[in-house]
Structure formats: structure tokens, C-alpha cells
Amino acid sequence: MKNYITLLKENDLKATIQRTSILKSIDHAGHINVDEIYEEVKKQYPTLSLATIYKNIILMQHNGVIIEVPINGKKSKYELKKDEHMHLICQKCGEIQDQEINPQTKETLIIENFQLKSSQINLYGLCNKCQNS
Known about the structure:
By secondary structure, the chain is an alpha+beta fold. It folds into two domains: 77 residues, Arc Repressor Mutant, subunit A (Orthogonal Bundle); 47 residues, Dna Ligase, domain 1. Helix content is 41%, strand content 23%. The chain has six helices and six strands, in the order ααβααββββαβα. The strands form two sheets. Strands 1-3-2 form a three-stranded antiparallel sheet. Strand 2 and strand 3 form a beta hairpin. Helix 3 packs across helix 4. The longest helix is centred in the first third of the chain and has 13 residues. It is globular and about 45 Å long. The chain starts with a helix and ends with a helix.
């Protein structure tokens, strides 16, 4: 289990129970949308509102603790920030698989006259399970 308190403090955020609970839900799921986070956190803290979840997600995203993964036609999912990687997103079931970016691929991402700070590569298709069903 990650130390969520340290993670928040390293990113200039106060470590609140709400934030650590949200991070725990995201970390446990890997990729999760706001409604799923709310359902998970609500089990332990029933008085917590959906608005509080949204507010904290936006703040943690702004401070670089979590990353939004947009999904065509569905609610975005969130993940803990980690080394750059690609997302393989199934258009049928919505499953997201992380795929490491190899150094050769990263080299081809260098764009002339543009200083790249970060990137997010989302590839859409069908996962093995959906291909075989």
C-alpha cells in the first residue's frame, strides 16, 4: 500500500481523510470513475457528498497527484500519477490497460520547436475478452 499522506504532502496538499480515502479507492481499482469512487468512499464515510469528491479530484488533478483518463462516450476515469505510459482502452467494456512506452517510442514523440512537458496516449480498440465474445 502506498503512503497517501506523503504523496499528498509532496504535492503541496493537506492530507485529509477524504483525500486519502479517494486515493485509496483509485489505487485499489487502478482506473476508476467519479461515481465508483463515491460509492467506495461512501461505504466508510456515509456523510461525504459527491460534491466533495469532485472538488478533491479536481484539486488533486491540478496538483499532479492523479491523472484523468478521458474515455469516448463515457465518464472519465482517474488513476494515480505514475511514469508515463499509454492506455489501451476497450471501446466495448471500458477496461483500461496500462502499456509502458519504450524509449524508441518516446524518442519519436519529440516535436521540433515544441518542449513537451507531459503526454497522454490513449489507444482505443477491443480487449482480448471482448474480441473473443
